[in-house]
C-alpha cells in the first residue's frame, strides 16, 4: 500500500518593520528671568517660528553660575512671573528641573537630564549674542556641543564670534534687559510695553525690585 507523503508547511519569518518614531525639535531657553520681559518672549517665538520647532521650554535657574546673584529675587517669584508670561502661549512650556535641583546650574547637566526624560527630542539651545562669546568658558562645553544645536540671536551692537557651530537667527532688535527693567522699577518709572501686563502687576503687587 502506497503511503501518502504529508508535507509540513514551511514556516516563513515575517519581516515586521518597526515604524520609525518621529523626533521632536524643541527649543530650550534657560536663564534667571529676573524678571522675564518681552524680549525673552519675542526671541523664543521668533526662533520657534523660523526653525519650525515644536515648542520652546523655559528653564529658570536656581542660582546662575555665570552671574552675580545678589540682585536675584527668590525663585518662587521668578517662576510665578514666568508662568504668567507664557500661560496664553500654547507652545511655550516651563520646566523647573534646575529649581528642583537647587544650587548652581550647568547647562550640560540640564540637557543630559532632559535627554534622559525625552530621548526623542532634539534640543536647540537659544542664546543671546552676548552669551555666544562666553561658550568656551562653559562647563563641559565640548560635550554639550555634541548634545544640542546652538541658536544665536543677534542683538544690537554685539558682534559675536565663536568656533562652535551656531545657527544665527534674525529677530526684531530690542535693546531690553532684565537689569534695565529692575532699574526702571527702582526709579518708579513705567515698565509698560516692556513686560507682559500680568508680570507688571505681579511686580507692583509684590513690591519687587524697589531696593535694587
Describe this structure in a few short sentences.
Keywords: ATP-binding, NAD, Nucleotide-binding, Nucleotidyltransferase, Pyridine nucleotide biosynthesis, Transferase. The chain is α/β, with parallel strands linked by helices.
Could you outline the blueprint of secondary structure elements for this entry?
Layout: E1 24-31, H1 38-50, E2 55-60, H2 75-86, E3 92-94, H3 97-101, H4 107-117, E4 121-128, H5 129-132, H6 141-147, E5 148-153, E6 166-169, H7 178-186, H8 197-206
Parallel strand pairs: 1-2, 1-4, 2-3, 4-5, 5-6
- Using the CA coordinates, give the radius of gyration: 24 Å
Shape: globular
Describe the strand arrangement of the main beta sheet, using strand numbers. 3-2-1-4-5-6
Q: What is the percent of helical residues? A: 25-40%
The CATH architecture is 3-Layer(aba) Sandwich
What is the CA–CA distance across the termini? 108 Å
Question: Any idea what the CATH superfamily is called?
Answer: HUPs
Order of secondary-structure elements: EHEHEHHEHHEEHH
The domain tally reads 1
Strands, count: 6
Q: Say what the CATH topology is.
A: Rossmann fold
The mean pLDDT is 89
